[in-house]
Give the backbone structure.
Amino acid sequence: MSRFRDKFDHRVWRVVAAIPAGRVMGYGEVARAAGFPRYSRMVGAAMGRSPQPLPWFRVVRSNRTLAFEVGSSNYREQAQLLKLEGVSFDGEKIIERETDHSLDRILWGPQD
DNA sequence: GGGGTGACAATTC
DNA sequence: GGAATTGCCACCC
């Protein structure tokens, strides 16, 4: 039995399960929130070990792209689930409602 | 024990 | 701003 992995898994699951619909988190952010900074590469494996369904599709790369190979069945599934929650895409890049400043640009002009 | 492997990230050029 | 490089660390041969 791996004490470390058990603890890591459960804390990751708890964080992922708490991500609100329509929002996304980076692997590094999840790891940090779980109390394991620098463990971004372990997050995916932990989710794959979850015995019960998790909103795994709300976890994306730090650059706001999906982690799966573009065009793969997993990629398409994740993209569709996110779209169903109102998450929009600019090509392969995710645009969260909360971080979408398109209206600001229209009202105030191009900004930083 | 040693080396390759990730559903990654930060830095550098 | 994109590509390349470097760091990361438990897991699994």
In short: The first strand of chain A starts at residue 25 and ends at 26.
